[in-house]
């Protein structure tokens, strides 16, 4: 488990089905423009039953070393609730040692810095025990909030990928951001950098 203040990252559990489904269904309009959707109606693809397949796939990918998926939770008022997701996927080892980050948060807790904190925790884990060297984040140019997340954390904008991913019914251009472990090592890690940036505001 990784945590900073009320933000907590942990592996998914089989018992997350109802909470995951509730938050995904409540956020259809918020998430659909930014995600590559599986074929099928949103309610069905995000039902507690569908979670069984999602869970199995995430566990398999994690076991194979292809990804590091985390449930993002908020620990408040004496309870912990699932409010989002961070995944380091497409992990390539050996001379690349790289991964792509993806994330989302419940619109009801947006704007509180939950995902920057969660992503910083995940990146520090990846650069430390995870043995990775480079994390990429690819974002649609029109996704202002997501661009703010990586800009606040100090990712470098380094690429423009045309018609990069099929999202919300079309092939969408993406901006490529990246960070390597050397860029944050001297600062005590990404979470330490993010904490300093927040207190400096
Ligand atoms: C992108 C996303 C994960 C950001 O998470 P977050 O925890 O809200 O991140 P932050 O609190 O740092 O807010 C980031 C920006 O969102 C914007 N924002 C703040 N409150 C907001 C709200 N209630 N609604 C919409 N946007 C808001 C602000 O521009 C903010 O930047 P600022 O800190 O410079 O003001 C979240 O907006 C989300 O889940 N969006 C839909 C899914 C998505 O886009 N995933 C990423 C695909 S690349």
CATH homology superfamily? Gcn5-related N-acetyltransferase (GNAT)
The averaged pLDDT comes out at 96
- The assigned CATH architecture is 3-Layer(aba) Sandwich
Low-confidence stretches: none
What compounds are bound to the protein?
coenzyme A
Multimeric status of the protein:
single chain
**In terms of structural class, how would the helical and strand content be classed?**
alpha+beta
CATH fold type: Aminopeptidase
Amino- and carboxy-terminal Cα gap: 28 Å
The amount of helix comes to 25-40%
Number of strands: 8
Secondary-structure element string: EEHHHHEEEHEHEEHH
Task: Determine Rg (CA atoms, Å).
Answer: 16 Å
Q: Biggest sheet: strands, sense, closure?
A: 8 strands, mixed
How many domain units?
A: 1
Shape: globular
Family: Belongs to the acetyltransferase family. RimJ subfamily.
InterPro entries: Acyl_CoA_acyltransferase (IPR016181), GNAT_dom (IPR000182), N-acetyltransferase (IPR051531)
Domain N-acetyltransferase: 7-182
GO molecular function: protein-N-terminal-alanine acetyltransferase activity
């Amino acid at each position: 488990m990784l945590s900073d203040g009320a933000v907590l990252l942990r592996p998914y559990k089989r018992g997350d089905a109802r909470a995951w489904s509730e938050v995904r269904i409540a956020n259809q309009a918020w998430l659909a423009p930014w995600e590559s959707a599986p074929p099928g109606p949103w309610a069905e693809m995000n039902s507690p039953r569908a979670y069984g397949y999602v869970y199995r796939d995430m566990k398999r990918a994690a076991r194979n070393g292809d990804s590091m998926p985390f449930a993002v939770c908020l620990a408040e008022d004496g309870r912990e609730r699932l409010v989002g997701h961070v995944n380091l996927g497409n992990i390539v080892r050996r001379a690349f040692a790289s991964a792509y980050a993806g994330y989302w948060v419940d619109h009801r807790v947006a704007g509180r810095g939950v995902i920057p904190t969660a992503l910083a925790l995940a990146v520090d884990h990846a650069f430390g025990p995870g043995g990775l060297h480079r994390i990429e984040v690819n974002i649609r140019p029109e996704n202002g909030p997501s661009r703010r997340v990586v800009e606040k954390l100090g990712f470098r904008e380094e690429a423009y990928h045309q018609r990069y991913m099929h999202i919300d019914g079309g092939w969408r251009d993406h901006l490529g951001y990246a960070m390597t472990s050397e860029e944050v090592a001297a600062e005590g890690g990404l979470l330490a950098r993010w904490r300093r940036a927040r207190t400096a505001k």
